[in-house]
Structure formats: C-alpha cells, structure tokens
Amino acid sequence: MSKTKVGIINVTGYVGVELARLLCRHPYIELTSITGRSAAGQKIARVFPNLACLDMTIESALGDIDLVFSAMPHGESAAEIVPLLNAGKRVIDMSGDFRLKDAAEWQQWYGHAHPFPQMIAKAVYGIPELHAEEIRRTQLIANPGCYATGAILALAPAAKAGIIESDIIVDSKSGVSGAGRTLKLTSHFCEVDEDVCAYSVDGHRLMPEIVQEIGLLSSGGNPKITFMPHLIPMSRGILSTCYATIKPGTAGGNAREFVKNLYREFYADKPLVKVVEDPPHTKHVQGSNYTLIYPTVDLRTGKLIVLSVIDNLGKGAAGQAVQNMNVMLGLPETAGVDAPAMYP
Amino acid sequence: MSKTKVGIINVTGYVGVELARLLCRHPYIELTSITGRSAAGQKIARVFPNLACLDMTIESALGDIDLVFSAMPHGESAAEIVPLLNAGKRVIDMSGDFRLKDAAEWQQWYGHAHPFPQMIAKAVYGIPELHAEEIRRTQLIANPGCYATGAILALAPAAKAGIIESDIIVDSKSGVSGAGRTLKLTSHFCEVDEDVCAYSVDGHRLMPEIVQEIGLLSSGGNPKITFMPHLIPMSRGILSTCYATIKPGTAGGNAREFVKNLYREFYADKPLVKVVEDPPHTKHVQGSNYTLIYPTVDLRTGKLIVLSVIDNLGKGAAGQAVQNMNVMLGLPETAGVDAPAMYP
Amino acid sequence: MSKTKVGIINVTGYVGVELARLLCRHPYIELTSITGRSAAGQKIARVFPNLACLDMTIESALGDIDLVFSAMPHGESAAEIVPLLNAGKRVIDMSGDFRLKDAAEWQQWYGHAHPFPQMIAKAVYGIPELHAEEIRRTQLIANPGCYATGAILALAPAAKAGIIESDIIVDSKSGVSGAGRTLKLTSHFCEVDEDVCAYSVDGHRLMPEIVQEIGLLSSGGNPKITFMPHLIPMSRGILSTCYATIKPGTAGGNAREFVKNLYREFYADKPLVKVVEDPPHTKHVQGSNYTLIYPTVDLRTGKLIVLSVIDNLGKGAAGQAVQNMNVMLGLPETAGVDAPAMYP
Amino acid sequence: MSKTKVGIINVTGYVGVELARLLCRHPYIELTSITGRSAAGQKIARVFPNLACLDMTIESALGDIDLVFSAMPHGESAAEIVPLLNAGKRVIDMSGDFRLKDAAEWQQWYGHAHPFPQMIAKAVYGIPELHAEEIRRTQLIANPGCYATGAILALAPAAKAGIIESDIIVDSKSGVSGAGRTLKLTSHFCEVDEDVCAYSVDGHRLMPEIVQEIGLLSSGGNPKITFMPHLIPMSRGILSTCYATIKPGTAGGNAREFVKNLYREFYADKPLVKVVEDPPHTKHVQGSNYTLIYPTVDLRTGKLIVLSVIDNLGKGAAGQAVQNMNVMLGLPETAGVDAPAMYP
C-alpha cells in the first residue's frame, strides 16, 4: 500500500521546519513536497542545516500531495487552502483562519472580515483529546493556537466537571519561537535575553479560542477569561498558570486529591497528556508532543490552580498537527510524535 | 565630618556582594568591614573579581562600624543582630527574621519559634515609599523580601484607595539569583536554562509579608492573596503580574485612565518608582534600584492588572537596603542607588 | 528473533538519561534494566519527567542484560565493567577509563594508577567513522570524550592527508551539560549565564585523547596540540575551532576548494558526518547524533581552520555510544540515532 | 566653572544608549544634547525605560555642545564629524571611520574609498593605556573596535617585550550586542540562544586594527594575525583567547611567572586594567569599563596564552570612549567609569 503523500506550505518558518523535522521521520507517510517563497529553489539542508539528512528542494508551488499542512500566516492561509479543499485534499491549517466558529468574533481579533466565512463550519478545532471523533470525519482541521492548547487542556477537566466559577485567569509564559522567525525588535536577542515582560495586555487573539472551547465544555455558558501572555528568555515552551475559584461544596474534604483524581480520570486514555505528581517544567516537554498537567488547590484561598506545560512548536503547533493527521488518516495517534522530550 | 562606618555580615552571597558593589562607591558612607565564613582571610577581589577595584579583605568578625547590613540566612540573622542592637549599632537585616509582626505567623512559615519575639516590635518593615517616617526613627530595619517588594508596590495604590475586592492573585516571575548562591539542583544551569516552572506551589514564605502590608493599607482587613512564584532563565529581575477585581462603580468612565492617574499621584514624589506608559520589562531595571509599574484594566472582565518590575538584588534586596540606610541616616534618599539600569 | 537486552548503569546523570531517551525508542534493541544509586526504587518518569512515557523503575543492581552502557564517573567505571566483561557481556564505557592506550599517560591525567591496566588493550576507542572494523570485533568500547570527538573528527582528514604541520590549536566552546549534573559553583545558573570563560587552562584530560588519535592518523608521529576548553551559556553543544599551519606547497592553487574536497571525500560514506557549505552552528546538531564540519583556509596567514559542531550529549556521548552499539551488534549504523536536530 | 557640554549623535543604538547611561551620571560634564533619526521628538525615557530617570528629548539635530560622541554607523560617521571638527568641537568617533592609518587598507575592509582621507592623520586611536599622550593633544579620537580593544590589550605587553613570534591566533567570543540593535536573523533570539558559531570566517574588519596596533608595538614589523570571532548566547562581553609561540630562550626558567610579571608591570599604573590570578569571566566586567587579563604558558607546547575579558559596550565601546573623553579634557581618567561590574 502506498503511503499518503504529504506537503508543507511555507516550510521556512519555525512551524514549517518543525513539521518537516517530524514528517521526514514519520513511519507511515511520505513527505513529498515543501514550499517556501523566499527560499524556493534551495536545498532545505542548506537553509536549515538541522535537516542535513533531508535531501529535498524547497519549491515555489506544491507538488502532488494527498494532505497538506499550511504554515502560512494568519489571514493568508485561507486563500491557499480553499482551492486545495475544493480539489479534495485534506488540509491542516496552522494559522488562526478557521479556529473561531464566529466570523464576527474573528473579524474583531484579526482586524478584517473573514475571507471565507462559509468554510468556517467545515473546520474542526484540532485538539484530539477533545474532538477525536470530528477529526476523523473532517477534511479541514484548524490547528489550535499554542497558548490556547495549553490553557484548554489545563482547564478542560474542571470546566467539564462544573467545579469552577466562570471567572478564570490564565497567566502564560512563553518562549520566543511562538513569535515566529520574522524579524522584530521584540525577538532581538539582546531585548529578550535576561528579561521577562507581559505583552498584548489589551487583549491577545488566542484568548477567544480559549473562551470558545472552555465555553463548549461548560454547562453554564461562556466563561470570563483574563488571559495574559508573557515572553521569557527561552526558545521553546509554554507554561500556563490557570486560576479559578472552586465552587463552594464541590471539592469536598481533600480538595487537592479530588482535583487530581478528576484530572487523572479525564486524561486516563490520552497517551500524550500526563497528569504529573510535581509541578512541571517546560523543559520536560522540550521538542516533544507531550503535555504535562499539574492541578492543585490553594487551600487558604479556595482557588483551583492548574499548571500545564507544552512545547509551543510541539503540542502547541507541529506536534499536535501531526497527531491530528494521524487521527484523520486512521493511523496510530502517536505515530511519529511519541519521542520523549530532550533533556536537559 | 567623618563618614558613617558601614559593615556587611556575610558578604559572600549574592546579596552581600551586591551590597559591597553599591557601598564601595557610595558618596556619603565608608565601607569599613566585610565578613564571610567560608572566605575569611581572602581578598574580596579574588573571590569576586567584579570587585577588582576594591582592596578589602574578608574578615571572620566585624571591625569597628556604626551601621551594619546582615546578609545572614533566615533564622540565623537574628542572633547576629541582637548583640549589635544592644551595642547601639544601627542594623539593616536582609533576612526574613523581623519582617512579620506576628510571631505565630512567623513560626508557621519559618518552621520554628521566633528566637527573639520581644525584638519584633522594634523593627520597621523597610519600604521607604510606604514607611519613611518610621525608618527615620528606628534602629532596626527588616529589609523586605524581593517578591514582597514588587507585589506590595504594585498593589499599594489600589489597596489604599479601596478600589479592589480582597481576592487578589499575584503571579511572579523571578530570575535565579533570588535563590542564592548556595548549590541546589534547581539552580543548576542545565535545569533552569530553557525552562520555566512554578515552585513553592503549596505556599511561599514571602506571601504573608504581602498580606501584612496590603492589609495595613486596606481599610477592610486582610486581603486574600494567592501568590505563585515562577523561576525563569535569567539571573536578575522579578516581574509581578497582579490581578484583582475592581469594585463596581469605582473606576468610572475611563477605567484605565482612572487607575493610571491614581498610581501616578501615589508615586508622584517617589524618585525611585516610575509609573510607566508601556508594559515594563525586567531588563529596564537590571542592576538598578528602580521600580517600574504599569497599571491597567481588562475592560472585558473588569480586572485591575498591575505589572511591576524590580531587580531582585536591587530594589528587591541590596538597593532598597541602601535606600533604607540613606533615609535612616538622613542622607539624600537616592545617594549611591540612582544609577540607571544596565541595558541591554 | 528476540531483541538484544540492554542496560544502563547510572542512568541518573545527563549521559545516562540521554542514553535512556535514545534507547527507549530504538527499533532493534530492548532497554531492560536501568540502575542508579541515589534514585533506586523510583520510577524514572518521576525523576526525569521528560521520560513520562517510559514505565521503568530505577534499580540498585543490573537485571538480565546482553549489553550494557556504563555511565559511571571516571575512575569508578572500570570496576563495574570488568566483572561484566568476565561474564561475557558487551560493554560500552562512557567514562575515560579505557580511552588512553598508555597506562602511564592515563595515570598522569586521572591522578592515580590505572586499576586494570591489563584490560586496556581489549578496548576499542569508539569513533565509528575511524574504527568501525575494530568496533565490530570488540567486547569493550571506550566511548570517546565529547571534546575529543569534535576535535578528532575536525582534524582527521587533514592529519591523514599529511597536509598540516604538527603544531595545532584546538579552541573549543562547550555547553554546560558536559560538566554533568553534579552540583558545583561553576554550573550554577547565575555563574554561567551571561558569561564565557576558559577553564582547565593548565591542561584538560581530554587533550591526550586527541593527541593519541591524531597521532595514529599522522605519519610523522605525535602532534603538538594546544587545547583550550571554554564554557558558554547553553546546555548542549560543542563548537571546536581548530587551527593548523598548512604545509608549504600542499594545498595548491585554490586552497579552500582543495581542503573542502579533501574533507568531502573523507566523509563521503559516513552518514552522520556532514561537510557543510557554511560555518556551522551547534544549534544545527542539538539533540542529534550528527557532526557538521566546515574546513577553510585563512589565505592571508596560511592557516587551515576547521570548525566542527556536535551535541556533547549526542555525538559527544550517548548518541555515539548507541552508534557504537549498532556497529558492534551488526545493526544499521544509524538505527535510533538518525533523528534530525531540534531547531530552533 | 561651567561643565563641558556633551552631545551624542545617534543615541538610539546600543552604543548610544550606553553612552547616555554613563554620561548622565558623570560628575564633571553635562549631557546636553542627544540625537536620533528614528526616535526624534520622543522622550528618551519612553524609548529606553532603563533611563527612566533621565528627562531628555531625542532631537533631530545637535544642540549647543563642546564635545560630541558620534555613534553613527561605519561609513556614515565621518560626514557627520568633519563639520563639527571644522567648527572646533572635540569629537569621539565610535565608528571605524578613522581607526586605520592607511586609507587603502580602510577601503579594502569597508568596501569603498575613504571619504576624508586627509583627516585620517588627525585622529588618535583611542586606547588610553597605550596612547594617553596623543589623546591629551588631539581633537579627534577614533574609538577602537570592541574585539580590537580586547585583543590589543591582551597582546600589547608581549608584543612590546618582543617575546613572541609574529604568528598569532586570536579566538574571540562575543555577546550579541556587538552586532547592534538593527534587526538581522543572526541576532534573532531563537537563532542565537543555545548556540555558538564562528562568523566572518573569511576576514573581519576589526582584524586590521589589531595588526596595526600590535605592529606599532613590535619591533619586527607587522604580525601575522589569524582572527576568528564567535557569537555566543549572551548580551554583553568579549573573551579573547590569544595564542602565540614564545621565542626560544626568552621566558627562562619559570615561564608562567615570567609572563605574569611582565604583564603586571606593563599595567601597573593603569587603573582600569587588572592582571588577575585566575582565568577571568566576562561576567566579571559586565556593565563596567574594566579589562581583566590572564597570561599563562602552555608548558608542553611553548605557547603563550593570554585571556582578556571586556564588556563590549563598556571598555569595548562607550566606557572606553568616556575614558578617552576624560583624558582628552584633563579630567580624572576613571571619572564616571569606575563603577564595579554587575555580578551576577
């Protein structure tokens, strides 16, 4: 049986090159085409010497493929994708173009009208731990935002169980690769090194994804989420520290054990999410597709505190995308994305 | 007029060496004695070559001094200090031994009974922006904890004005020097580098300092503070992100302008605290004694969000201690601690 | 056919845990036993959460194995290994105990008499690119030192071709993980961060390995190598910058092309060594078993300059060890160690 | 007596802002005018919040000044400076425009003809430890390149004493701020972090400065210098590791003591250069104007090895420039640049 032919649009960003790294060693598919505007015609091993073992040329247009990952920027991806969908290809979109169900909400955060509002309903929000059934049946996956993935996985069990009030704070700390390979002063080494700052303090566009998904899991309508992203001096990783008030009377005697059991059960059969015994470090998931989650309770203040760590390019982008592909194609869910994290 | 003779007990930790760095160039005092157990007898320039210009020998016992900084660890400092107080010396204690007014609370967080409970009332909690009058009159200053300084300065104006509910979250991100120079796995380069984690998730001993000081400023009794410290891969700096619900009806039409004005007025005559126009970076205060504060409001959720940055060894320790000394001795408040931050 | 059973002695250091990371996903062997003194009885996933997917317990003694990696410290490894050799097991020794052919030289650098001088001749110095034939036939592999691997691979083609004078300078820059997980001030985050220094300036014990191996390749006897290691603020990676004077008349017209061709030919059939077109970065080999080499000539001064990059825990330790195992067992040389480097 | 009025042209780069940091606290001069094209009209405290204490507006043109620092880029600085010189102002040029005495050499390295070759002879190469007399008498100082400063100070005593052969290797490791604040992929955080690389391997334009100055000190004509710069993941600091063969018979019995004494004597009365007892770290000079130098001998190979550390923005740029100004104006040499380094 021939392998599924897979392509990557815009391989030259950090998400694209991470997709190439994972896909070139994937046991069940064949990476057959990679594109990139600025580097078309060059060997990928010359542009990205970490892929010294991969003998492929970056093309200006996609070759023959069955499934494609689009790593185009927000707002530009949809136009690349729609013709592919019309041609019957499966598509995993790394951008934010199809993540929000509400076109008006999308317009508010992305600054202009959605280019293909009629396609929104076709897309499945690709967190396999929550939406595996729909992922199996769809042609288009909207791969979630990095911050959104970490926060949603941290809050989902509590939201589903209805044990928290709707007023939630998500304080996230991210490595710099989440901001992409494009040059900006805020990614200049000397500005980030030995520094931490909050940014997008007036509102970040991944917040509505969190509201949407936690709202779907909650019985009581949309939560009220204060989301604050921070930039820290590392390349990869997101730690999300989530705070919510536990509803009176829910957690019973031993609140910490109660929430740990709740989380363990929720993720019991999810191979790539681990509920851990100690507060996790982003280094524990570096380069991998794993999520580590640590739920606890501040007994003095009655707050549920959930810590989650992901690699923003792994479970926060390329790793989750490959996991979505696996589910979509009926392959083993962890194929090609089960490597342990690099440590130290 | 002869200069005040100043000593440092335990100069060999990060707080001690930072005190030496500041004091050896202070225009109005004379650094005359430095002690350190492990390095006694050695030239400080050999142990700390950043002080190559300082020709002093580390001693095993204090020489003739008028005022001393004790950089002894928590629990050991009090015993060093009490004889000095009895001998009429002025003392600035860098440890937590005299920060909490309540000996029972102290025992709960430090793990044993307070060794000199009768001395607690003599100590002034040394934040000059809040307690300058008492600092002028005291013989003993309890120099605040690093996290506590950043959080208290961030919350003080709102607490004083009574515009926030009592349920407060302080999410702090700190560099590694706050954990000291002692060897531990959690300070090993390879464990911290490319990593972020939360720690002391079951309660950190600087939390009660924040509760105590914010409680003193609030009319409605003690606040309920959830405090979560995080370790990030940098040497110096603390960013505290503080969240509190604004009381209905308080902030009026333009809530963001309202809180900015409130903060600007509160710190109008404080030369070392700046209310800034943009979210601050820890790099902006690196190596300095400045605090930058940025208050804003999440208009969707009604949360006051205050960001503050300090250098944990500057305003969070040695810098504030020298500022306290200045106030105590009637010197210009900013003498020796007005150098701009090193950037980048 | 049953898989070879493999064990790791002392899994709890950085080399040990990297071996576990590679071996737990190796397609042709089975990792059956891992030992560690301090952590015996604990789940490895609790001690090293990057291995959250690996359900093994750290033992105090080796179980049933066919081949073992010893990650014991220098000087302690030999005593662990000799009984295993006597019991017919294959052994790959990560320590320096069997790397030097000359017991007197060993004593000079390791500070005491070699414990098993009679075993030295049994060991093969495990660089598969140079000694594959002997590796296939041996029972004991002395896995090379990290610095030595990078320098030897950089210099081998020139030494073999006899185009350089015997006076060689190797200036190496290493990440901190090479110093191990043991606590020392020189691995404290705040001491390494934002810093670079030279160390072991009076002589480093990996220097004689380089002299031995380059001497074996050279026709004219032992080279005179000045080796200077430097510590830089990163966890993984070694860049070696090697300088040697090109013998008059050897390199002909286009000296740069001449040496590039020489190097390309030397490594033409070595899948894990790439001669690259641009000066390489350690980031290009991060987490991988690849070596990138860039030879060039300073035309003004007639110096051959060779840059090589490896991951000190990959090709510089665990990766090369697994590659050695593959060759020793007749498996495909790159099995389990062909993953591209993580970037960025 | 009124203070000298000082200006900075192009304050918005890393060198410019470091000049502002030092000059705004200088005891004997007054910083009266700062210019910057992109940020003209803005408060410097808004653009560089580390200067929150400095109430100055960035201007589009220089105001009334007696002396000016030009932090314009190479090739653009000369045109700014010449009119100021003609108007009788003193000028310290941070660029490379007037460093090389030979206009043809300049053209070779800077890519076009020197715009004002007749002015070259007026400029003094501003290393006060070597050229104090000329600095006192000149109107124009060419402030040295960062790498050149570290290498020249490391080699000067040996070159002057004539104890080394002319074939010298300088292997330098620099922080990223040396590459400036301009955006480039090679300064992107994710490209530099966890990485080390060599660059400008075909020749770096600061090399001829080293050759020129070491040549002036040597009796035997120009040395043959192989210079290789490396970029390492830190913001500030340069470590230069210099290798040269000691001439037979020169260093006598105890070669290490011999060279240490030679270096100690050479720098005995230079307050900002320290010959140290242990291999120095760049962290020891971070944020300061000090140079630490450690000379030693590899007894096996007969090589002189000299390690020098500077802060590339301190002694490597702004600090040395202020020191030059002090000497030029007859002020105490260390005024405003004697602060100890920040550590850790």
Structure write-up:
- The structure is a homotetramer of 344-residue chains.
- With 344 residues, the first copy, chain A, is of the alpha/beta class.
- Chain A folds into two domains: 4-144 and 316-329, Rossmann fold (3-Layer(aba) Sandwich); 147-312, Dihydrodipicolinate Reductase, domain 2 (2-Layer Sandwich), CATH 3.30.360.10.
- Chain A has helices spanning 14-23, 44-47, 77-86, 103-110, 128-137, 146-161, 189-192, 207-217, 255-266, 314-329, and strands at residues 4-9, 29-34, 67-70, 90-93, 123-125, 140-142, 164-174, 197-198, 224-231, 238-246, 273-275, 291-298, 303-310.
- In chain A, strands 8-9-7-10-13-12-11 form a seven-stranded mixed sheet. In chain A, strands 2-1-3-4-6-5 form a six-stranded parallel sheet, sandwiched between helices.
- In chain A, helix 5 links the parallel strand 5 and strand 6 (140-142).
- In chain A, helix 1 (14-23) crosses helix 10 (314-329), helix 5 (128-137) packs parallel to helix 10 and helix 6 packs parallel to helix 8.
- Chain A is globular and about 65 Å long.
- The mean pLDDT of chain A is 97.
- The interface between A and B is large, with 47 and 47 residues.
